[in-house]
């Protein structure tokens, strides 16, 4: 899984597993979440956006289309 460290006050890094369509987000508060069945295009929309924090929250949480799980 390739992980990209984010210059953010909220997110430490975002990782993407293209084989399992899984996004892993580690937050600066220590929480780690997995987001499931995320198409590559959606992942790219998030990481290439002007505001990764805002777009990841909207797409992965507010739109309520994807399953997620708190790991830690």
Task: Please describe the topology of this protein.
Blueprint: E1 2-5, E2 11-17, E3 22-27, E4 32-35, H1 40-47, H2 52-62, E5 68-70
Antiparallel strand pairs: 1-2, 2-3, 3-4, 4-5
Helix pairs in contact: 1-2
Question: In terms of structural class, how would the helical and strand content be classed?
Answer: alpha+beta
Average pLDDT over all residues: 96
Helix content: 25-40%
Q: What's the story with the biggest beta sheet?
A: 5 strands, antiparallel
Order of helices and strands: EEEEHHE
Strand order of the largest sheet: 1-2-3-4-5
End-to-end CA span:
18 Å
Describe the structure in your own words.
- The protein is an alpha+beta fold and 72 residues long.
- Helices cover 26% and strands 33% of the residues.
- It has two helices and five strands.
- The chain has helices at residues 40-47, 52-62; strands spanning 2-5, 11-17, 22-27, 32-35, 68-70.
- A five-stranded antiparallel sheet has the order 1-2-3-4-5, with helices on one face.
- The protein is globular and about 25 Å long.
- The two termini are 18 Å apart.
């Amino acid at each position: 899984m390739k992980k990209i460290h984010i210059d953010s006050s909220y997110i430490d890094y975002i990782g993407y597993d293209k084989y399992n369509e899984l996004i892993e987000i580690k937050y600066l508060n220590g929480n780690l979440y997995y987001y499931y069945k995320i198409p590559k295009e959606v992942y790219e929309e998030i990481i290439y956006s002007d505001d990764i924090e805002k777009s990841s929250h909207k797409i992965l949480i507010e739109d309520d289309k994807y399953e997620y799980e708190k790991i830690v």
